[in-house]
Specification:
The protein is of the alpha+beta class and 378 residues long. It is 35% helix and 26% strand. The chain is built from 11 helices and 19 strands.
């Protein structure tokens, strides 16, 4: 009997397993993938996410991957450019974008050091029920592992959410498509964002001297059948500066594309189960919030599960508080992100053009992008 079984060992699951193991719970962490391995991701961790890594004693390990601290930021649209230092949160002077094969493996190892048992290449075929409550999982090998609580941290297509029939509390339309690849030969000048009507591009330096170059484009336009061609054309069209950068660089990996970019809140808990990370809440990656949100959710859940898990009423009350706090933490950011993901430049172009040389406006804009106004807990 485990106290907790965490299904999914990426950012949300590994961080949750680590924190719950540190709190003294007996934790089993499962993932169907091998580790280290890559996964689709914007990579970027905003300042609140790095602040949590620092609090957990992991920031130096993350920086040791070779991913630079991104201490400058620019946001360019036709007719306006906001540029300056990245906002500071405590001792955190910028964002960071480690490759996921490095970050996720680092978090899994931290969970192991905390006492969690990790089983890679171990998928979940079903849940074990006792009455109306989840009481464990049925693994791919056929064996049943029992637990007082099962955590679904297995992404937007969560098996746990499907098996418990977790309803959507809110669902909004998908707004964009995204494609990205990794480039060498692009000068490191911090985080750079370029937006034009119905399309946006991000240049995000990561480890090994590479830069993730991503494009997002609105689903309201004509269907795209040749994605590699559309990707290169959007890179060239977004801005002359970006065109110059790409001309001097070299694409080092294949093109990664994703059209399944939903916006939702699911009911995050029920008898014997709880959801964390993208399984509970997902928003369009236009704001690169996924990893930071995962860390915040892991901290919230672990903070509420700070006592023994053998008292069902106490656990239910803790999960109810977790669900309440999810709504408080993420609803405003969710609404703002929906506006950004519409990629309707006309809705804010005039304001940016008028205020681009106002340091207070630029600083406020960048703090909002970093999510520094949101609370950070662990």
């Amino acid at each position: 009997m485990y106290d907790v079984i965490v299904v999914g060992a990426r950012c949300a699951g590994a961080a949750t397993a680590m924190l719950l193991a540190r709190a003294g719970h007996r934790v089993l962490l499962l993932d169907r993938a091998r580790f280290p391995s890559d996964t689709l991701s914007t990579l970027y961790i905003h300042q609140p996410g790095l602040a949590l890594l620092a609090r957990w004693g992991l920031l130096e390990e993350v920086l040791a991957t070779g991913s630079p601290l991104l201490t400058s930021l620019s946001f360019t649209i036709p007719g306006a450019r906001l540029a300056g230092p990245a906002p500071v949160l405590g001792s955190i002077a910028g964002g960071c974008a480690p490759r996921r094969y490095a970050l996720d493996h680092l978090l899994v190892e931290a969970a192991g050091r905390a006492g969690a048992e990790f089983r890679p290449r171990s998928g979940v075929l079903g849940l074990h029920w006792e009455g109306s409550a989840v009481a464990g999982v049925r693994c791919g090998s056929g064996e049943v592992e029992r637990a007082r609580l099962v955590v679904g941290a297995d992404g937007r297509n969560s098996t746990v959410a499907r098996l418990v029939r977790a309803p959507f509390l809110r669902q909004d339309p998908k707004l964009t498509y995204a494609c990205y690849s990794y480039w060498s030969g692009i000068p490191h000048q911090g985080m750079r964002l370029f937006v034009r009507q119905w399309a946006g591009t991000a240049c995000v330096p990561t480890q090994d001297g590479l830069t993730l170059v991503a494009v997002q484009f609105s689903r309201t336009g004509p269907a795209v059948t040749d994605r590699p061609r559309a990707y290169r054309e959007l890179l060239r069209r977004t801005s002359p500066e970006l065109d110059e950068l790409i001309a001097g660089g070299r694409q080092e990996e294949r093109l990664f594309c994703c059209s399944d970019l939903p916006n939702y809140f699911r009911r995050p808990y029920g008898p014997g189960w709880v959801l964390v990370g993208d399984a509970a809440h997902h928003k369009d990656p236009i704001g690169a919030r996924g990893i930071t949100d995962a860390f915040v959710q892991a901290g919230l859940l672990a903070g509420h599960l700070d006592g023994p898990l053998d008292d069902g009423r106490r656990v239910t009350a803790a999960l109810r508080r977790y669900a309440r706090d999810l709504g408080k933490e993420f609803t405003t950011a969710y609404e703002d992100n929906l506006l950004s993901a519409r990629l309707d430049l006309d809705s804010y172009r005039a304001e940016m053009v008028a205020n681009q040389h106002d340091p207070a406006y630029v600083a406020h804009f960048f703090r909002g992008y970093a999510g520094i106004r949101a609370a950070v807990r662990a």
